[in-house]
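hey can u check if this looks right to u? its 106 residues, i copy pasted from the old doc so theres a chance i mangled smth
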Amino acid sequence: MAKRFSELGVTVDDGRKIFNCQQVSITDILNSEIEVLDFLPDVKTKHGEGRFLVHYRTTDESGEGKFFTNSQSLKSALSQVSKEDFPFITIIKATKCGKGKIYQFT
């Protein structure tokens, strides 16, 4: 009888963080208070390279989620927050700019 993979004692750890939660669109959480738990910089997706993956929890503790962003203002802000200051509470606002939007933490 063949062994189960779980019985083989194999561990796979490539050193990357994994956020085991539902992926949402940033538009799903706009104007809602969230707690930013962590992020991964420079993630490559089908939409391109250099995106950030942001892990968050709703402040009413109804759930956790994650979203990808290529917003320069969000990426810059996240890069400036020291690891000791995580998690932090914020609201993401969108401002129309030409044909696009600018996302900002408030």
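The beta strands are 22-23, 33-45, 48-58, 64-69, 88-97, 100-105.
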